[in-house]
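Support request, please re-run this one:
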Amino acid sequence: MRPFRTLWAAIGTCLLAATTLLSLGATVSAQQAGATTPASGHFTGTLADGTNWIADVPASWNGTLLLYSHGFGPLVAEDAPTAATRAALLARGYALAGSSYDPNGSEWALDTAVNDQFGTLKAVESTVLPGRPRQVLAFGTSMGGLISALEAQDGAGRINGALTTCGIVGGGINLNEYQLDGEYAIAQLLAPSEKLHLVGFSNYTQAFATAGALKAAATQAQQTPAGRARLALALAFLNVPTWTPGASAPATANNPAALEAAQFHVEFTGSFSTIDFIEAARVAITQADGGSANWTVGTNFAAVLAKSPYKAEVASLYQQAGLNLQADLSTLTRDANITADPTAVRSLQQTSVPTGHLSVPELDLHTIGDQLVPVQQENFYARQVWETGDGNLLRQAFVSSYGHCNFSPAELVAGVMAIGHRVAAGQWGDVADPSNLNRVAAGLDLGPAQFADAYYPGALTGAVKLPGIPEFPGFPGHPGFAGQPGQPGSSGGSSQPGSP
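Re-run finished. Output below.
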């Protein structure tokens, strides 16, 4: 099993990179000085808002530039997700570029990230590359996957295609909402006397205190059938995968106890758990939007669960524990009183929610066992794209592994090659079929190739209806996603932002 790096390991690497970057020239690195059309090498520069950018150009450039958007974390320029992937892409002739985003802002950098990336593209094209690229492909990881999706939405004439990997393509508001639904359920059903502070964090101390309290409540609940049933309900709202770290596959679908045990392990165990990451990230999102864009008021929790792929697991565990599921759902709905700052909601929607429109072809890759950005986000996003009429521009492929962004270099390079082929050919053909992706990836000798056949994720539990984004009563007819027979399930229950 390929290792999953914690946030703090990533931060350590990025801080080292930041120290190196700050020692370089303020506008253009010494390597670039006096050169108008450098042939190859590593280059750096700075945009007007202070954004740092880097670029790597191989000696034998193939004419394609990859505009890479890094994920959530320190605002340090990256042009590839890992050193191994960077080396593999450069060896195959790809030029790479990417930015830090505005280093003076929040780590949830969506306020400026798209403009910073396009500014980087302009700088690299005009000062670094030996000629005009034949193709420019956006390429993003996690939060950067959302950025690359937004680039695909608005980037006609600047980029030719996009590859999103483990992307937050369901948008920032959905991310906020399903996370809060699950945390609220834990607080309300398992720790009602503690009156936990769930939103509006102004610092990491508050965030980690809440994470610790939620973890303690969950750990205690895990000791009894009733506690495990209620945890299963909360974990369903959180869209937690049923794939235990280290396992070769998810828990067996007909074993509710094993499903819940896996979800508990994914969400609450480890020195820096998934719930710790979620609460820490909420600080940055609140900072970016100038307030809390989270709410529970108006949410019908029975309707949310009714459309969840985890409803059978939850119902079974409630029955075994002798609990009344409808009573708990009614309690959650009745007591839901967390309201959002409308200005913050508008900010998050304007900066961090795709419309579903695509101006260029896009390929999405996602691991099935993603504990931070659930694979169900791809279901929601596909619905948006098909609703706009741009569904023929989108393909999605899924990798059979546990962990957020846990792709091998082989899988990532195969994805880059696939979207490049689609741009050059003008049609998809079988280029994004799992069998073809596996064949290409296996031939690269860069690690495992585990694209899944006949897989499509269920609905995103708790997906919300927003102004201008229709609530989908059904899935529009389409020619079929590559390797994805059948139709995605229906979207989650809807709720509306509360007033302050």
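The first helix runs from residue 7 to 22. The domain at 7-171+356-442 is CATH 3.40.50.1820 (Rossmann fold).
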